[in-house]
Amino acid sequence: MLGLWLFGTGEALVVASELGNSPWTVFAEGVSEQTPLTIGIATVITSFVLLLIWIPLGEWPGLGTIANAVVVGVAIDVMLMLLGSAPLGVRIAELLAGILLVGVGSGLYINAALGPGPRDGLMMGLHRRTGRPVGLIRAGIEVSALVVGALLGGTVGVGTVAFALLVGPVVAFSLRVLPQRAVRRAD
User: Fold this and answer.
1) How many domains does the chain have?
2) Averaged pLDDT for residues 139-151
3) Is 163 part of a structural domain of the chain?
């Protein structure tokens, strides 16, 4: 739960920076621009729609999957209520801190091994169904969310590029240094 809250807090900091959002938050913000939904609620609804897409792909959620679908969006909305407009120097710090928190939150969440996030399950289901490389599938999903979100009015900018370039290394580092839950495997 801490990892999911940190992830959502990081996303809120990126949004508050007004320098460009992560691809899925560009999408959620775009939805929020076209509907009465907040970015967080749009994130929650999007997560559950993605879980419905899992059904024909044969993916199954875990407890962590359901928690992810709810907690991240709630954290985004709660934290955005606490954050205000800031000068550019503070906004750059918000962007970098947000990317760091998303990476650390991801490491905690993934290492808990309680089920993939809605986007991760979609990625793996499409990979298993099509045989296409995971990287190609994930890139296609992220670019699709980004393009649709931008068309709906979500914020794309230098922060979007920074997120794309920096979050992967932060997640990889977090996965190496944060404690992992021991997972028993049936052999």
Assistant:
1) 1
2) 93
3) yes
Residue 184 lies in a domain: no
What's the half-sphere exposure (Cβ side, CA atoms, 13 Å) at 137? 16
- State how far Cα 21 lies from the chain centre: 10
**Whole-number Å distance between alpha carbons of 11 and 72:** 9
Please report, in angstroms and rounded to a whole number, the separation of the first and last CA atoms in the chain: 29
Q: Is the dihedral of CA 135, 140, 141, 143 positive or negative?
A: positive
Domain that holds residue 33: 2-177
Q: For residue 183, which amino acid is it?
A: V
CB 178 within 8 A of CB 110: no
Whether 186 is in a domain gets the answer no
Quick: pLDDT tens for 6-61: 999 999 999 999 999 999 999 999 999 999 999 999 999 999 999 999 999 988 99
What does the DSSP assignment read for the chain? -HHHHHHHHHHHHHHHHTS---HHHHHHHHHHHHSS--HHHHHHHHHHHHHHHHHHHT----HHHHHHHHHHHHHHHHHHHH-----HHHHHHHHHHHHHHHHHHHHHHHHHTS---HHHHHHHHHHHHH---HHHHHHHHHHHHHHHHHHHT---SHHHHHHHHHHHHHHHHHHHHS---------
